Each structure stands twice: as C-alpha cells, then as structure tokens.
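Field reference: sequence -> structure
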Amino acid sequence: MTGLVPITGIAAVVATVSMVLAMLYLVWLSMGDGTHTASPDDGDRPELDDGNDDESQPEVTDGTSA
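Structure field:
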C-alpha cells in the first residue's frame, strides 16, 4: 500500500505540470491573433457627454415616494 504513494505523487506532479503548460500554450495562442490588441482610434465615435445637461440629472424625490 505504501508503494503507491510515490507513484501517486509523481502522477500528480506530471498532471499539474502538464496543465500549467497547457494554460501557457493557450495564452500564447491568444496573443498571436488580434483579439487582445488595442482598437485603432477611428475618430468617428461621438464624444462622451460631459454631464452639464439638466436632462441627465435624476429627478429629486421628496423622500416619502422613494
């Protein structure tokens, strides 16, 4: 029974190392395509509202109808 302990430990280490290598390989594959690259600045996008409008302000409630 105690002879299985080193075999189980070696198998666990091999499985852990192979999983780490598989994850590193997947990260390496994802870095190759343009999925995680920055988007180009088109300049056609509308700018964000600066928030000075009265329409963007929420209505004030009197506290009893909240």
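Note: The chain has a mean pLDDT of 75.
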